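User: Predict the structure for this protein chain, please.
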Amino acid sequence: MSKIEYKIYKGDNVDFLEELVNKLMSFQAEHAKIHPEIMASMNYNNRLKLEYKGSNNELMYVAYDNDQPIGFAYGTISQVANESVHSLPEVISNMGGKGFYPDDYQVPKSIGTFKLLYVDEKYRGFKVGKELSDYLMDWLRSSGVEDLWVYVANGNEVVGKFYEKYGFNFSHSVCNGFIDAYKQVL
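Assistant: Here is the predicted structure, written as structure tokens:
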């Protein structure tokens, strides 16, 4: 392993992260206890690629070893309006339970969302995830948003504890425990 470099990615195409995103989605599917078949259906094309193209204000922070991406952190800044408080993606819309925000969530509101974090297995233990997370959290906190959100897939409770170190607190379960929502008020 050579010196790990970190760069902000500003391009339109994130296909260079496809392998890493698919590893993350596979990991989530393997550990899911609630609807693992839905987690197994998620991949780069229906997760990051679509979301990245649809976002207007995002940060993609990437770790490289010799120009090879080994990890990334992705976050967005957006507005939550009345019509989006209870909306869910079609794939989970029939699960019941609460949506991504609590029923009493006061909107409109500007929010930051820590969307994805992944570090290739062989680079874990070298604080790559910490560097990626620290940078993304600094960006989110300095963006002028009112709240920060992060969503953790079921079966991945250890990650929830990781985000608690960054000041997030458990808010509620989305779709009866399919995802756990964590919030931080700024």
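The chain has a mean pLDDT of 94.
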